[in-house]
Amino acid sequence: MQSLISKYNIPGPRYTSYPTVPYWDEAGIQYNSWIESVKKSYRESNQDEGISLYIHLPFCESLCTFCGCNKRITKNHNVENPYINAVLKEWDLYLELFEEKPIIRELHLGGGTPTFFKPESLNLLLEGILSKGIIPKNHSYSFEGHPNNTTKAHLEIMNKHGFERASYGVQDLDFKVQKTINRIQPFANVKRVTEDSRSTGYDSISFDLVYGLPHQTIDSVAHTIEKVKELMPERIAFYSYAHVPWIKGNGQRGFDENDLPSADEKRTLYETGYELLLKAGYKEIGMDHFALEHDSMYQAMKQKMLHRNFMGYTASKTQLMVGLGVSSISDSWYAFAQNVKTVEEYYEVLDLNKIPIFKGHELNDEDLIIRKHILDIMCHYETEWNSKDKQHQSVLDALPRLHEIEADGFIEISHNRLTVTEKGKPFVRNICMAFDAKLMRNKPSTQLFSMTI
Question: Residue 290 pairs with which residues in a beta bridge?
């Protein structure tokens, strides 16, 4: 197995989209084309599915040196209301494109640190968003919180607006690891916020755990998971640390790279955590994700309803996802568009009464077909190319690239169907790469992605 790990441990996308962002058209997307794409998707899907909203709240009081998110470090909380007002203005610009009140099926607050904002500021934001939409019975609203600063008041305000799922960044509970990544949060804080969430009415708690961090050991991973078992969150995301300082700048240079585990050591950390999570009763959902059997994410997997987008795995699918806030990415299914990346630019473009996108990509027929295959592999560990909507020359071109992967026991192919084996699940990114026509045609000369293992 170690030889296979070495063989397949190469830079590769995480496939929250296809095409991946580095392979979007250099020319971008015309503003009017994006507007028409949103209108088309809304007309096709609002009554059946509704829409998803992702709101990016970029502010943090301190820099976590493992973080790859778009963030603004500040202790000045006077930034809250101007930013919220700008997000609400962007929402109004999207609302002008819709023919009636949108059904807001999914809503997620990400960051940054959403709980950087005062409870009353979040209340202002959520009232402004939700008062102009329809909240369906089977909605899914969630937020990312920091265990150190998420208060009972935060939880109550958001629960009042229909939030029933909370995600907390735990990462690792070893003090040496926490100190190195500048994310010191005692287990007592994680326990408090978990118990407060449940007593407030949240029925699904998610923890983010990360393997491959500096100074991380088998013992620290095992200790973290043993402590997590005391709280049994409904979902766990067990991520590989993506070390991409060439993209994220000095934030990920906050430690000596010799402190990072080797590829073989990192694989052992994953296998240790994986086995402990299964023994604790968690079920593997998709790449890096685990859930208890009663959670909606597990039920969605069993019913083949699991979906993946820029928010990661979701238990339901909407064709249209609108991203609000700095650097947010929107997805109309037919096109992607990303907002400008600095707060200053964001305000400037909104002052012109324009949605603040700065780049994007319109999907052609090939893109749409490849996207379906990659989604099926990422969400269901299988795909097929019997139906016309799954057939394209690029799919046939991918088959020779799959022969070696099949020989290594990661997939089985028969009757125009591919199934990922248990052995192959940890290598799902590599399997998807074989279908990635844009990547195959233009392999990067510099490292664009994190390592797959």
Answer: 236, 284
Altogether, the residues listed in the chain come to a count of 453
- Spatial distance between the Cα atoms of 298 and 302, rounded to a whole number of angstroms: 6
CATH number of the domain at 1-18+364-453, out of 1.10.645.10, 3.10.490.10, 1.10.10.920, 1.10.443.10? 1.10.10.920
Burial class (CB within 10 angstroms; exposed 0-12, middle 13-18, buried 19+) of 415: exposed
Strand partners, 169: 208
For 20-54, letters b (16+ CB in 10 Å) and e give bbebbeeebbeeeebbebbebbbeebbeebbbbbb
Residue-wise pLDDT tens digits, 110-160: 999 999 999 999 999 999 999 999 999 999 999 999 999 999 999 999 999
Extended beta strands in 278-347, E state: 283-286, 289-291, 307-309, 312-314, 320-324, 329-331, 335-339
pLDDT in tens, 208-226: 999 999 999 999 999 999 9
CATH fold group of domain 19-324: pyruvate-formate lyase- activating enzyme (3.80.30)
**Which pTM was predicted?**
0.93
